[in-house]
Design a protein that fits this description.
The complex is a heterotetramer, with 2 copies of chain A and 2 copies of chain B. By secondary structure, chain A is α/β, with parallel strands linked by helices. Chain A has helices at about 5-20, 45, 60-70, 90-95, 100-105, 135, 150-160, 210-225, 245-250, 265-280, 300-305, 310-325; strands at about 1-5, 25, 50-55, 75-80, 115-120, 145, 165-170, 180, 195-200, 205, 230-235, 235-240, 255-260, 290. In chain A, the strands form 3 sheets. Chain A has a 7-stranded mixed sheet, with helices on both faces. A 5-stranded mixed sheet of chain A has the order 9-11-10-13-14, with helices on both faces. In chain A, strands 1-8 form a two-stranded antiparallel sheet. In chain A, α8 links the parallel β10 (about 205) and β11. In chain A, about 70% of the residues are buried. By secondary structure, chain B is of the alpha/beta class. Chain B contains 12 helices and 8 strands. Chain B has helices at about 5-30, 50-55, 70-75, 80-85, 125-135, 150-165, 190-200, 210-225, 255-260, 265-275, 280-305, 330-335; strands at about 60-65, 110-115, 140-145, 170-175, 175-180, 180, 200-205, 230-235. In chain B, α6 links the parallel β3 (about 140-145) and β4 (about 170-175). The model of chain B has no long low-confidence stretch (mean pLDDT about 95). Chains in contact: A-B, A-C, A-D, B-C, B-D, C-D. The interface between B and D is large, with 56 and 50 residues. Bound molecules: thiamine diphosphate (2 copies) and magnesium ion (MG) (2 copies). One magnesium ion (MG) binds near residues 147, 175 and 178 of chain B.
C-alpha cells in the first residue's frame, strides 16, 4: 500500500496500541494538536486522554516520567518534538533510562521509546535542524533507530515497541511527506540488520535516514558514469549490523560513509573506523566520509543546503574515489 | 506617568502600531515566498508588552523567545534589518544565519531570541551578575511565554536571582496558549505569579490589554529589581492567530477567539486616546499611514537585499581570527588528492 | 493512630534504631576498608522519615536519593543484601554493580536510589501514570533532599502530578545542607512547601524530630494523593555528620552541630516511650541489643560474600537474551587475528 | 616546581583572576567547601563572594547563567562537579553557549570556561565515572580541552581563560593528586598543538587525559620487549592538531588510539578515522582502538578496573600489532 512516512508511523502506533494496552503516548502537542508533524493525529480520539497525553513543555520531566512509567508496567512512547531539544533530556536518557537495568543488577528494564525527529530542510535554523544521533550511540544501554523508508517507519517502530530496552527512535523531518510502499506483513529486514538498498560492485556507500535517498540519487548519477555503487542502509545504529557492511566492502574495496550530522565526532566516524579496522586488507582507497559541515545550521535556505551533503557531492566524491576523476571543487 | 498624559500613551500607541503592522508585513513576506522558512511566530495580540519595554532604560539588556519581534521593535530595532533577517538576507541583524527565531542586537541590549522554549531565561541571571560585579545600574529582562513557565529552568533562574538579589525581571507573556495547549491544560495553578512569590520574588499578573497598566506595573517591578529585588510579571493577553505561520488553530473555536481578540492593547489605546485624551482619529490615522509606509519599505528592502555568500557558512563558528572549521570538500581533497 | 499508642511508636522506634545502627555499621565497613569506594552518605539524623515510610502501603513504590539507606530499611530492606551491595559484592541487591547510591529492589517497590540529585523525582510521576491507567490503588513517593529542591525538574514533576491528579507524593528531607551549602544559602525562600502549594499540590513542613507527627502528616498527605491530590512534605531535620564519608563539615561549627543533633527522632521517641508510654529502658535496651546483633551479622555477611565475577560486567547492559556489547578484547581479536 | 595537578589548576585560576577582573568562578561548592575535589580551596577568601559564587544545585541554570554573564562582559568559569551531570546542561552548552556567536551572525562570543572532571577510579558507579568528551567534540562552536600533565593543567587552563569562545575543560578525578613539574613560564606546547610525550619509531599511540599515563606505562613495558612506542597527547580535542599524529604514523606505520571513554562513538573513533583517511598509504596494520568497554561503569572496584584500559591491555595490544605476539586473551 502506498502511504507517507508519516502515515506509516501513525499506523504503527495505532496497531501497537491496539495490540498492547500498556502502551501510551505522551509529549508536547501529541493529542489535540496531533503532533507537530502530524504523526499522532487522531490518536487522542481513538485511545483517550490516558493513553494519548498532552504534556506541559517540560522535556526533562516528560522523559523522566516515561522512565518511571516504563519501570512500573507501562510501555511509554515519549515524543521529543525535535531532537535538538535532547540537550534538556540527556540526563534522564543517558543516566536514568539507559543505565537503570545495569545499575540495579538486571532487576528491571526501561522499555520505552523516545520518538523524535531531526535534520535539515525547513530553514529551522541552528536549534531546529540538528542530527544528534551520535550523542545516543555513545551511551551503552540505549538502542538507536533511524528509519529511511516508509516500510521501515512502520516496522522498525513496531519492533521498537517490543524491545525490552529504551529505544531512541529518530525520524527525519524531510521524510514525513515521502510516499512509499508499506507492507505490514513484510519488513525490509529484521531488527538489528542492515539492508542493501542498491546492489553494486564498485563502491560501498554506508548510510542511514534521509541520506539513504540522497545516496541512491547519487548512485544513479554514478551509474551514468559507469560506476555501480552498493548502498547500505544501517537502519538500527544500535544494535549495529556491521558485518553486512564488511561483506560489501570486502567485495567492492572502496567505502564511503554518508551522514547528515556534522562530520567531527559523528556516527560516520564510528562506521569509518570499523570499516578500516575490519576490511584493512581489502581497501584500495581510504574510507571517506561525506557528512555535514562542522558548523551550526544557518537559517537562510541557500546556506542551509550548503551545510549538508547533496547527491552531487556524494556522486563527485564517488567518482573521485573510484575513477580518480577530480571533483568540481578540486578541478 | 500621570494619568491623562497624552504624550506617553501616544508614544506607546505608535510603537504598538509599528509592531502590529510589522507582523502583518512579515505575513505578507511569507505569502510572497520571501521568508526563510515558515517558523514565523506573530506577536499580534501581545503589543501590550510595549509597556514593559518602555520601562526599561538604555543599557538594560533582555532575552526573548521565538515570538519576540514586537519586543525587539519596542526596544528600538530597525525594521529593515529585522525583515532582512527574517528573509535570511546578508544585511539582516544576524547576516542571514539566525532568522526570525534568533534575532539579536548587542548594541540594543538584545542578548538574543531563542528557539528553545525557556532557553534564554537563565541568561538574564548571568547578565545580572555581570552588572552587580561591575557596579552597573542596568537590569536584564527575560521575555518568554506561558508555555515556558512549565520549564524547570525558570525556577532555577528565579531562585538564583532572588537568592543573589540580582537586578533581573522575568516577564511572562501569557497569551493563553503553548501551541495547541491552553494554559489550564499545561498548569494546575494558572496564577503563575504565585509561583514567583513562593520563590521570593515580587510577582504580579497584569492585564496585557491595557498598556498603561502594564507600563505602571513594569516601572514598579523594574525599579525594585534595580534595587536588588528581582521580579516576575505575567501579562494576560491572547494569541490572535495560529502558533506559527502554518497553524490554523483548529483546536480552539471561533467564539473563544473572538472573545480573546477583544483583549487588544492597540485598539484599547486608540479608543482611549480619542475618547479620554486629546488625540483625534485623523491624527492617529496619519500616524498609522506613516507606519504603513515604514513597514512596506522594510518589506521591499528585505526582498531587494542580497542573499549571504555561500562561503559565509564557515564564518562565525568561532571568533574571527581563531582556527575555522575545515570544509568537508577540503577534507576530502586532502585524502584523495594524492594519486594511488 | 491514637495518641498514646505504644505499639506504633515502639515499632517506629525499632525501625529508626535499625536505621541508625545500620548506618553506624556501614561506617565500620568503610573503616575496615570493605566498602566499594567512599561515596557513602549516612542518613543518621533523618530517621524521622520512618513515619512517611510507615504511611505507605504494600505495592506503593518510591525512588530515593544518594542518602537513601534509611528509607529503604524502613520499607523492608534486607540489611545483609544492602551491606553486600555497599561492599560491591555479588549477592548485593544489584549484584555489586550499583553500590550505596544505586540500591533498588523492585520487589519492595524501590524503583531505585539515584546519584543524580533530583534524578529520581520525575520517575514517580510516570509510576503514578501507570497506576492511574491500570486502576491500581498505589501511590509513588519521591524522596530527596533540600538541595534537590533547587533542581528545576522537581517543579516540572510537581506541575505534571498536580495537573493530572496523580497518586504521587514528593518528600523532601530537609537536613539543612546540600554538601557544604546551608539551605538559606541555596534558596531565597526556605519555606519549600509554599512552592508546592503555588504549583497546586498539598504542601506541609513537618518537624522531622517527631516521628509520630511525621507519620500523622504522611497519612494525611498519602491519603489525599491516593485520591488524586498529590502532595509535598518537607521534613525538617539535621545532617548529623559530614556529607559523605570523607567530609568533616569544616564549614559549620560545633555549636550549630550540637544544636542540630538535638533534633533526634530516635532519641525523642525513646524518651517519649519511657516517660509518656509504657515502655521501660530495659525493654528498649534489649531491643537495641537485638538490632546490634542483626547489623553486626550484616557486616560480617558482606565481608564474607563473594565479589562478582569479572565477566559479569557485560551482563545487564541490555535484556538477557538481547545482543550483548562486544568486549574490546574480542573486537581487537577480530581485527588482529588474521596474520598479515 | 613540583606540585599536584589540583594545585596547578588552582594556581591557574588564581593567576588568571588576579590578571583579569572580569573572571569569576561559579558552581556547586566552589566557595566555602573549596570544590568537591579541592581545586577552588581558598579562592573565596581571596576574591570574595562576587567572584567565587556558591550556587544552588541547579546545573541547567548555572550554565545558563554563565552564558548570560559571558555575553555581558564577564568571563565566567562555571564548575560542573562531574561531567556525568552534563546531561542536565547540554541544551545550555550545545544550543546556547556553542551556537550564539553563529546564530547571531558573529555579533558576540560566549567566552566562558566550563570546568568539570570525569573518569573512573573512585568506585563512583555509573553516574559518577563517565568520560563524555564525545558529546562535546560533536558540537561546533565549542573548544574541548583535557589536560594530562600538571604543567598542562596550569597552562591549558590559563589559555582557556583567554579563549574568545566557550571551552569545555575536562579534568580527570584520578589525576588531582598526581605530582609533576609546573613551570609557569613554559607550557608543554601551544594551544591547539598535540605534544609528543615519548618518542619512538615502531608504533604511534594517540591518547589524552589520564590514558596518557597508562600509555606511557605501557610504552615502558613495550620497550622491555624491544618496541619503541611514540606517545602523542592530543591535549586539545578541539582545536585538534592531527598533523602531528599523521607525521608520527607516517613514520611508524602503526597506530593505536587509547581512550577511557566507551569505545562505540567515542572520540577515539574520530581519531582512528582520520588516521586511516590521511595515512592510508603508510599503514602496515589497521589502526586499532583500545578504549572503555561499551558498558556503564559498575561500582565494585574489581569490575570498575575491568571496564577501562590498563597499561597491560595497551601493551599486549601493542605487542600484537607490532610483533604479532598473540595476547593473553587470544593465546
Ligand atoms: C525546549 C522546547 N520545547 C518545545 C519547543 C516547540 N515549541 C515552540 S514554541 C512552543 C510553544 C511555546 O509556548 P509559549 O511559551 O506560551 O510561547 P508562545 O508560543 O505562546 O509565544 C513549543 C512547544 C521548543 N521550541 N523548545
Ligand atoms: C545533578 C547533581 N548535582 C550535584 C551532585 C553532587 N552532590 C551529591 S549530593 C549533593 C548535595 C545534595 O543535597 P541534598 O539534596 O540536600 O541531599 P543531602 O545530601 O543533604 O541528603 C551534591 C551537590 C550530584 N550528585 N548530582
Ligand atoms: Mg503562550
Ligand atoms: Mg540536604
Amino acid at each position: 500500500m502506498e502511504v507517507t512516512y508519516r502515515d506509516a508511523l501513525r499506523q504503527a502506533l495505532i496497531d501497537a496500541m491496539n495490540e498492547d494496552p500498556t502502551i501510551f503516548v505522551m509529549g508536547e502537542e501529541v493529542g489535540r494538536y496531533g503532533g507537530a508533524y502530524g504523526v499522532t493525529k487522531g490518536l487522542l480520539e481513538m485511545f483517550g486522554e490516558n493513553r494519548v497525553v498532552d504534556t506541559p513543555i517540560s522535556e526533562p520531566g516528560i522523559i523522566g516520567a516515561a522512565v518511571g512509567a516504563a519501570m512500573t508496567g507501562s510501555r511509554p512512547v515519549a515524543e521529543l518534538m525535535y531532537v535538538d531539544f535532547a540537550g534538556l533530556t540527556m540526563d534522564q536518557v543517558a543516566n536514568q533510562a539507559a543505565k537503570s537495568r545495569y545499575m540495579f543488577g538486571g532487576q528491571i528494564g526501561v522499555p520505552m521509546v523516545l520518538r523524535t525527529q531531526g535534520g535539515t530542510g525547513r530553514s529551522g535554523a541552528a536549534q531546529h535542524s540538528q542530527s544528534l544521533e551520535a550523542w545516543f550511540t555513545h551511551v551503552p544501554g540505549l538502542r538507536v533507530v533511524m528509519p529511511a523508508t516508509v516500510n521501515d517507519a512502520y516496522h522498525l517502530l513496531r519492533m521498537a515497541l517490543k524491545c525490552p530496552d529504551p529505544v531512541i527512535f529518530i525520524e527525519h523531518k524531510g521524510l514525513y511527506v515521502k510516499k512509499g510502499e508499506m507492507d505490514v506483513a513484510k519488513p525490509d529486514g529484521n531488527w538489528g540488520k542492515s539492508v542493501i538498498r542498491r546492489v553494486g560492485n564498485d563502491l560501498t556507500i554506508v548510510t542511514y535516514s534521509r541520506m539513504v535517498h540522497e545516496s541512491l540519487a547519487a548512485a544513479g548519477i554514478l551509474a551514468q558514469n559507469g560506476i555501480e555503487a552498493e548502498v547500505i542502509d544501517i537502519r538500527t545504529l544500535n544494535p549495529l549490523d556491521d558485518e553486512t557492511v564488511f561483506a560489501s566492502v570486502t567485495k567492492t574495496g572502496r567505502a564511503m560513509v554518508v551522514s547528515e550530522a556534522v562530520m567531527t565526532g559523528g556516527f560516520a566516524a564510528e562506521l569509518s573506523a570499523r570499516i578500516s579496522e575490519r576490511c584493512f586488507d581489502y581497501l584500495e582507497e581510504p574510507v571517506v566520509r561525506v557528512a555535514g559541515e562542522d558548523i551550526p545550521i544557518p537559517v537562510s535556505p541557500g546556506l542551509e543546503r550548503g551545510a549538508v551533503p547533496t547527491p552531487q557531492l556524494i556522486a563527485e566524491t564517488g567518482l573521485w574515489l573510484v575513477k580518480r576523476v577530480a571533483p568540481s571543487w578540486a578541478a | 506617568m500621570t494619568v491623562g498624559d497624552n504624550r506617553l500613551l501616544l508614544e506607546l500607541y505608535h510603537t504598538m502600531r509599528r509592531i502590529r503592522t510589522f507582523e502583518e508585513r512579515v505575513n505578507e513576506l511569507f505569502v510572497r515566498g520571501q521568508t526563510a522558512g515558515s517558523m514565523l511566530h506573530m506577536s499580534i495580540g501581545e503589543e501590550g508588552v510595549t509597556g514593559v519595554c518602555k520601562a526599561m532604560e538604555p543599557g538594560d539588556s533582555f532575552t526573548t523567545h521565538h515570538r519576540g519581534h514586537g519586543i525587539f521593535i519596542a526596544r528600538g530595532a530597525d525594521p529593515k534589518r529585522m525583515m532582512s533577517e527574517i528573509a535570511g538576507k546578508e544585511d539582516g541583524y544576524c547576516a542571514g544565519k539566525g532568522g526570525s527565531m534568533h534575532i539579536a542586537d548587542m548594541g540594543l541590549g538584545h542578548l538574543g531570541a531563542n528557539a528553545i522554549v525557556g532557553g534564554g531565561i537563565p541568561h538574564v541571571v548571568g547578565a545580572g551578575m555581570s552588572y552587580r560585579n561591575r557596579k552597573l545600574p542596568h537590569i536584564s529582562v527575560a521575555f518568554f511565554g506561558d508555555g515556558a513557565a512549565q520549564q524547570g529552568i525558570l525556577y532555577e533562574a528565579m531562585n538564583m536571582a532572588a537568592l543573589w538579589k540580582l537586578p533581573v525581571v522575568f516577564c511572562c507573556i501569557n497569551n493563553q496558549y503553548g501551541m495547541g495547549t491552553r494554559i489550564d491544560r499545561a498548569a494546575a495553578n494558572t496564577n503563575l505569579h504565585e509561583r514567583a512569590i513562593a520563590f521570593g520574588l515580587n510577582g504580579v499578573t497584569i492585564d496585557g490589554g491595557d498598556v498603561e497598566e502594564v507600563h505602571e506595573a513594569a516601572e514598579r517591578i523594574a525599579t525594585a529589581a534595580r534595587n536588588g529585588k528581582p521580579g516576575f510579571m505575567a501579562l494576560t493577553c491572547y494569541r490572535f492567530f495560529g502558533h506559527a505561520r502554518l497553524d490554523k488553530s483548529p483546536y480552539r473555536d471561533e467564539e473563544e477567539e473572538a472573545k480573546g481578540r477583544k483583549k487588544d492593547a492597540l485598539a484599547n489605546a486608540r479608543t482611549k486616546l480619542i475618547t479620554h485624551r486629546t488625540s483625534s482619529a485623523n491624527e492617529l490615522d496619519t500616524l498609522d499611514d506613516a507606519v504603513n509606509i515604514e513597514m512596506n519599505a522594510a518589506v521591499e528592502h528585505a526582498i531587494a537585499a542580497a542573499t549571504p555568500p555561500a562561503d559565509s557558512i564557515f564564518r562565525d563558528v568561532y571568533a574571527e581570527d581563531e582556527p575555522r572549521p575545515r570544509p568537508v570538500r577540503d577534507h576530502l581533497s586532502m585524502i584523495l588528492s594524492e594519486a594511488r
